[in-house]
Amino acid sequence: LAVAERALEEVDESTDPAEHARLLRDRGLFLANLGLPGAAELFLEALEIVDRAVDDDQLHATLLNGLAGKYMLASMPREAIITATQALEIATRANDPREISVAHNLRGTCRTYLGQLDEAFADFRAAALFAPRSNGGAELRFHVNYSDMLGLLGRHREAFDVAAAGIVRARELGVERASGTLMVQNMVEPLLTLGDIDGATSRLSAVPIGRPQVLNDQYVVLTRIRVLAWQGRIDDAERMREEWMPSLRRTGELERQAWYRIVENDIALDIARGQWTHALDAVVAMTQDEGFVLLHAYRLLLESGWVVAEVRASGGDVDVAVSAIRRLWAEIP
Asked: Which residue intervals of 231-313 are DSSP H helices?
């Protein structure tokens, strides 16, 4: 990041516009990987330069896909679909299989968020078809996003298999520690849902704890905290949560899916402590949030039935909570 920023400081009228756009793209990627804001704005700035002064379809498609990815993570699926479609048109013209695959991948993910499942799975099939023709990056991205979507749709065993295949490919490419980290998480999440806590724990134990400033490591730590809570290791879970929370909160402000993971962990810790009323309060707060509702809410709403039952059994008032849960359930695509 520091090198990219230094290079951008040296940009002047003699700088090749394409190189200027690439520097902006690179700075945006580094910011995103560190969970810092500003990536979307840099992609937009780079696109303005390309539109004005650069005749390079591959760079154009890459920037559009980068922007679509930022829109997706910011829970702006309609904007992401439009942008990914533009990238797909340009990448097809340039015969660039990597960007074609990435565009289908991003569009499929966002169509899933909107409940457009037939169209989404058609996009994922196309992403899988073109991905092997690239340098490997598109394949890994497909395995990450597709396994994530399958898990969110309740197809847990398929999600596990897709993520496991992605781990094998990441190992072949020598990037298991980087790209493979997210796929480990996408293997663990289905195992947790299926009740295989031992299997989830063993796979997490093979992954280093990592660093709070690295985005991929943050997502894995969110899963670690939930596993610890489910095991009753509340003190360990709370210590890890306290250490990582500043970075997690910052990422949660940028990426809606991270926000849901944080809420999920808060509820898991309340349940582990036996604080059922606090857990139900967290569920209600989630339903009242004004941000875009992702499929991640499904699991939380389903699990909330257990929380409602416990609070009701203890004599607590659950009418407001039940109304809020039913309202949000009806709104999800």
From this structure: 234-254, 256-273, 276-288, 296-313
Is 304:325 a contact under the CB 8 Å cutoff? Answer: yes
DSSP for residue 251: H
Q: Which amino acid is at 189?
A: E
- Specify the pTM: 0.91
HEC secondary structure over 34-96: CCCCCHHHHHHHHHHHHHHHCCCHHHHHHHHHHHHHHHHHCCCHHHHHHHHHHHHHHHHHHCC
Residue 34 has pLDDT above 90, yes or no: no
Between 35 and 39, the more confident residue is 39
- Cα 42 from chain centroid (whole Å): 20
Judge contact between 269 and 261, C-beta under 8 A: no
pLDDT value for 15:
92
More reliable by pLDDT, 33 or 229 = 229
Q: What is the C-alpha to C-alpha distance for residues 323 and 327, in angstroms, rounded to an integer?
A: 6
Distance CA(324)–CA(146), nearest Å, equals 30
Backbone dihedral angles phi then psi of residue 247, each to the nearest 5 degrees: -70, -40
> What would the mean pLDDT of 162-175 be, rounded to a whole number?
92
DSSP letter for 213, please.
Answer: T
What does 232-244 look like in DSSP terms, one character per residue?
T-HHHHHHHHHHH
CA-to-CA dists, residue 317 to 114, 151, 323, angstroms: 33, 33, 12
Burial pattern 192-218, b for ≥16 Cβ within 10 A else e, equals: bbeebeebbbebbeebeebebebbbbb
| CA angle at 229 for the pair 224 and 235, rounded to the nearest 5° | 95
Per the document, the length of the chain is 333
Give the contacts of 90 (CB within 8 A, at least 6 positions apart): 57, 60, 61, 64, 99
